[in-house]
Amino acid sequence: MALTSKDPTSTKTWQKLLDHYQVITQKTLLKRFQEDPERCHRYALEVDDILLDFSKNHLTDETLQLLLDLAEECNLEENRQAMFAGKEINHTEGRAVLHTALRTQQKSEITVDGKNVLPSIHQELDKMSAFVEQIHTGSKLGYTGKKITDVVNIGIGGSDLGPMMVYEGLRPYHIADLQVHFVSNIDGSHLVDTLARLDPETTLFVIASKTFTTIETMTNARSARKWFLESGQKNDVAKHFVAVSTNGKLVAEFGIDTSNMFQFWDWVGGRYSLSSAIGLSIMLGVGSQHFRALLEGMEVMDRHFEEAPLEKNMPVILALLGIWYGNFFGAQTEALLPYDQHLQHFPAYLQQASMESNGKCVDRDGVPVSYQTGAILWGGAGTNSQHSFFQLLHQGTEIIPCDFLFSTEPLHELQEHHDILVANCIAQTEALMKGRSLAEVHNEMEDQVDETIAPFKVFEGNRPSNTLMLRKLDPRSLGMLIALYEHKIFTQGIIWNIYSFDQFGVELGKVLAKKILPELSGEVPGNHDSSTANLINRYRAK
Ligand code: G6Q
Question: N or C: where does the chain have the smaller number of CB atoms within 10 Å of the terminal CB?
Answer without folding.
Answer: C
